[in-house]
Amino acid sequence: MQTQAAVPAAARQFKALGHPVRLGIAVRLAREPETCACDFADVFQVSQPTVSQHLRVLREAGLVRTVRRGTQICYSLDDAAITQVRALLETLDREVPLGR
Amino acid sequence: MQTQAAVPAAARQFKALGHPVRLGIAVRLAREPETCACDFADVFQVSQPTVSQHLRVLREAGLVRTVRRGTQICYSLDDAAITQVRALLETLDREVPLGR
DNA sequence: CTCCTATATAGGAATCGTACGATATACTGC
DNA sequence: GCAGTATATCGTACGATTCCTATATAGGAG
């Protein structure tokens, strides 16, 4: 039973996803892994430092990984972390299906 | 494809779950539906008004429903909302399983 | 109506989050 | 080395969040 001790860590992850720009970044990374940081500023209409800061929040929550590719840095979702968040959310749900 | 427009609404829900007390309340409500508000103050070691405020955040995010039962007010998770959050999270996950 | 319990709201203090412009760091290519 | 591009960090302003105490509101019992 993870349910008790996992709460603070999971709360940090939910918090990280709790901003439209960061959730938007996550959604985009799901569709297009290894997206480089520079692409987000245009898409979300915020400055480069703001993007960088949001990426840092996601990184510190363990939700994304990075790979340097020459001068640019490419971000991807950390599948293990996403699965973990999903797992907690499933414990909240009594309408279990949705399995796709 | 909900993915685009659903982001701001979902971000609000993630944000609501992004606090240890509120996530803790949600976890507890999953195990014990119709828990009355007064029970939470003891469990989470915060004052009654603080609990009330956290419950308000959850309510305004659409994550919980309330039922008045005499002088006390009982909270339950809104299963539809939880399922919705889960759905968005599944679009982030490539390791689909976990279906229980 | 009065008293008691349960919950919500108001007000305020401390802290955190979010955005920006300016600047620093890191890599590439010459 | 220097110049250019890509990211990160610094500094800072402003608004939001979180928690408390004090107070208001709502319902039940007498």
- How large is the count of helical segments of chain A? 5
Work out the number of β strands of chain A.
3
Strand order of the largest sheet of chain A: 1-3-2
| Major sheet of chain A | 3 strands, antiparallel
**Morphology call of chain A:** elongated
Note the gap between the termini of chain A.
25 Å
Radius of gyration of CA atoms of chain A, rounded to a whole number: 15 Å
List the helices and strands and how they pair.
Two copies of one chain form a homodimer.
Chain A: H1 7-17, H2 20-31, E1 35-36, H3 38-44, H4 48-60, E2 64-69, E3 72-77, H5 79-91
Antiparallel strand pairs in A: 1-3, 2-3
The structure holds a DNA duplex (30 and 30 nucleotides).
Explain briefly what this protein structure is.
The structure is a homodimer of 100-residue chains. By secondary structure, chain A is an alpha+beta fold.
Question: Can you characterise this structure?
Answer:
Two copies of one chain form a homodimer. Helix content of chain A is 56%, strand content 14%. With 100 residues, chain A is α+β, with helices and mostly antiparallel strands. In chain A, 31% of the residues are buried. The A-B interface holds A 3-4, 7-8, 10-20, 22-24, 26-27, 29-31, 77, 79-80, 82-83, 85-96, 98-100 and B 3-4, 7-8, 10-20, 22-24, 26-27, 29-31, 77, 79, 82-83, 85-96, 98-100.
Describe the structure using short key phrases.
alpha+beta, 3 strands, 5 helices, DNA-binding, 3-stranded antiparallel sheet, elongated, homodimer, 100 residues
